[in-house]
Amino acid sequence: MAETAHGLPASLPEVVRAALAEDIGDGDRTTLWTVPPGIKVRARVVAREPLVIAGGEAFVEVFRQVAPMVTVRGPLAEGTPLGSGDRLVEMKGSARGILTAERTALNFLAHLSGIATLTRRFVEAVEGTGVGITDTRKTTPGLRELEKAAVRAGGGVNHRMGLYDMVLIKENHIAAAGGFRKAVEAVRRENHDELLVQVEVARPGQIEPLEGLRVDRVLLDNMTNEEMTWVVEQVQAWEEPRPVLEASGDMSLDRVGQVARTGVDLISVGALTHSAPSANVSLLLEGIEP
């Protein structure tokens, strides 16, 4: 996966270009018809609620493409926590450029900061346990790399990026392959790139066939806290190297601390990317430049 120096995808310009085409089309009629050319303004983006910043590079890229002569100061570093009323960004330049870029730029900033903010809440909920909070593939099509970067900004860790960079043998794979052992052995024969191999189990009793199969991770899917505690105790009795244990399914802020105390190593939370509310941010004009 190619990335920029900031850890964001090299495809960012194309993602932004598509978003701008969707919004502007062949022209911003309102701005072109109401704002005289040559008018210059100062503007700022403020947080309307406590949040964690993410998406700053996407915000800046929107202005690079729409109004490259607009001076953008900021945004603050990814992962920076802000309070209500704090400034994220300051701008100076063409009123037409700022107004045309405003919504697309704010959409990226609000959406990605919302993901970072929710991630930080989950990370804080398991603080002190040593358990990592990780994302899933339940992302917005076309925005996966940006959304996963936002998870990192919030203090979470990324699971596999896609189907190509890690093996996750799920229930349907196991059924089609004819069982755990056949599925894992088939993967081991073909896994020349030595990708991590994870197997999903839905019932505590399914953990036993995995002992000795050289599985890197086990996904404990939709188990109760008591069931996960029992599985952890069983796996801890295995010889090294033991697999990393990941809990998944129905993970809420109210529950995640209890899950962390079962002894698992990771907790995956699909809601980080598919259900995070957008952060409340606003762009305000502060005055016309002389």
Question: Can you walk through the features of this model?
Answer:
It is a single chain. With 290 residues, the chain is of the alpha/beta class. The protein has ten helices and twelve strands. It has helices at residues 12-24, 29-34, 56-66, 95-125, 144-153, 171-177, 180-190, 225-236, 253-260, 271-274; strands at residues 40-47, 51-52, 71-73, 81-82, 87-94, 132-134, 167-169, 197-201, 217-221, 244-248, 266-268, 281-288.
What is the topology?
Layout (H helix, E strand, L loop, with lengths): L11 H13 L4 H6 L5 E8 L3 E2 L3 H11 L4 E3 L7 E2 L4 E8 H31 L6 E3 L9 H10 L13 E3 L1 H7 L2 H11 L6 E5 L15 E5 L3 H12 L7 E5 L4 H8 L5 E3 L2 H4 L6 E8 L2
Parallel strand pairs: 6-11, 7-8, 8-9, 9-10, 10-11
Antiparallel strand pairs: 1-5, 1-12, 2-4, 3-5
Helix pairs in contact: 1-3, 1-4, 3-4, 4-5
Low-confidence stretches: none
Q: Strand arrangement, largest sheet? A: 6-11-10-9-8-7
Count of DSSP E strands? 12
Q: Any idea what the radius of gyration is?
A: 23 Å
| Proportion in β-strands | 15-25%
CATH architecture of the largest domain: Alpha-Beta Barrel
Largest sheet: 6 strands, parallel
| Secondary-structure element pattern, one letter each | HHEEHEEEHEHEHHEEHEHEHE
How helix-rich are the residues, as a percent range? 25-40%
Write down the domain tally.
2
The structural class is alpha/beta
Distance separating the two termini: 46 Å
Average pLDDT across residues?
94
CATH class of the largest domain: Alpha Beta
**How many separate helices?**
10
CATH fold-level topology of the largest domain? TIM Barrel
The CATH homologous superfamily of the largest domain is named: Aldolase class I
Shape: elongated
